[in-house]
Design a protein that fits this description.
Elements (H helix, E strand, L loop, with lengths): L4 E2 L2 E2 L11 H9 L7 E5 L5 H6 L5 E6 L2 H13 L5 E5 L10 E7 L23 H9 L4 E12 L4 H10 L2 E10 L4 E9 L2
Parallel strand pairs: 3-4, 3-6, 4-5, 6-7
Antiparallel strand pairs: 1-2, 7-9, 8-9
Helix pairs in contact: 4-5
This protein binds S-adenosylmethionine (SAM).
Length: about 200
């Protein structure tokens, strides 16, 4: 079996788990983690973002609602000999306690209800915003005082709407990276607690 290598991380893939794509790469290239930080990767998929953060972070937790993703991410951590990372099944923050310096989420954003495991990577509820809006409402309770959030989404789902939801949750959001694909822009939004 040939395994792709991204940013020096060797990955096993699975047909039920989102394969790293442009959105993953934009997040990987934009994200900053400082030595010693504690990080959380929501919707971890193959675990790539969590494994990259583990290079600098003291500890990383990766969660996913898809059990196949959790198993795969654990295998990918072992494959790369990375031990300061843990993966757990969780619907957003359901099985997450404590606070983090960095929280990442490459969110599903197309309108629709998931029917099989792989759909969870792409569809975010009837309007496409359900998962993102739930994430934004819950994320402040899991952020340290100076913590920051990196959220990836598409222009299709409404970037302005995301900014308003962050504002309502007491966070200030800013688009820090944008990549134009065929029919959409993929953006990375950095959100931090207001000073
Ligand atoms: C677009 S994929 C991103 C995967 C990976 N982080 C990456 O960047 O390649 C979205 C991921 O979010 C997960 N997901 C969807 N809804 C979720 C939820 N409510 N809680 C946790 N994970 C969720 C999906 O199973 C999928 O693995």
């Amino acid at each position: 079996m040939t395994m792709p290598i991204y940013y020096g991380i060797k990955l096993e893939l699975h047909s039920d788990v989102y394969e790293p794509a442009e959105d993953t790469f934009l997040l990987a290239e934009t994200l900053e983690v400082r030595p010693g930080e504690i990080a959380l990767d929501v919707g971890t998929g193959t675990g790539l973002i969590a494994l990259l953060m583990a290079r600098k972070a003291k500890y990383v937790l990766g969660v996913d609602v898809n059990p196949k993703a959790v198993e795969l991410a654990r295998r990918n951590a072992r494959l790369n000999g990375i031990s300061n990372v843990e993966f757990r099944l969780s619907d957003l923050f359901e099985n997450v306690s404590g606070r983090f310096d960095v929280i990442t989420f490459n969110a599903p954003y197309l309108p629709g209800e998931p029917e099989k495991a792989i759909d969870l990577a792409l569809v975010g509820g009837k309007t496409g915003r359900e998962v993102i809006d739930r994430f934004i409402a819950e994320v402040p309770d899991h952020l340290n005082e100076n913590g920051r959030v990196y959220l990836v989404q598409s222009s299709i789902t409404g970037v302005e709407e995301t900014m308003r939801e962050f504002e309502k949750a007491g966070l200030r959001g800013e688009v820090i990276a944008r990549r134009h694909l065929f029919f959409e822009d993929i953006v990375v939004i950095l959100a931090e607690k207001k000073g």
